[in-house]
Design goal:
Elements (H helix, E strand, L loop, with lengths): L10 E6 H10 L6 H5 L5 E2 L3 H8 L6 E6 L9 E4 L8 E4 L25 E2 L5
Antiparallel strand pairs: 1-2, 1-3, 3-6, 4-5
Length: about 120
């Protein structure tokens, strides 16, 4: 999947396959940045290409995990320019609850269900 295929107005957290497996085991998207910075790094779909360029240059095997802002419950979603980039990014201030499709098993061909995280390719 290319970055251009992500919905521009949906919220995404970029993660490696290993991080994704950890989130699945924990039952939520809860990276170390919650403890170290107080939030989860996210991008709107329209921001993902720039995020890849700035923070993931050369990285392979990344997944775009879609986060439902309406399912955050008590977790606040703040849009701020945390690093002085001149652009505000969405930052949930706590773990994202598990999406309803997480418990589903892989399809018979070994690929994840249609709502599973989307692999993305930088530079596409």
């Amino acid at each position: 999947m290319s970055v251009d295929e992500l919905h521009p107005d949906r919220l995404y957290h970029l993660a490696t396959t290993q991080e994704w497996e950890g989130y699945r085991a924990a039952g939520s998207i809860a990276p170390g940045s919650i403890a170290s910075e107080g939030f989860v790094h996210c991008s709107w779909g329209r921001q993902v290409a720039g995020t890849l360029e700035r923070h993931f240059a050369g990285a392979t095997g990344l997944l775009a995990l879609e986060v439902d802002p309406n399912a955050l419950g008590a977790v606040e979603l703040v849009e701020e320019d945390s690093y002085g980039s001149g652009q505000a990014f969405p930052t949930p201030t706590g773990p994202s609850p598990p999406p309803p499709w997480w418990p589903r098993s892989p399809s018979p061909r070994g690929s994840l269900t249609r709502l599973a995280p989307r692999p993305i390719m930088a530079g596409c």
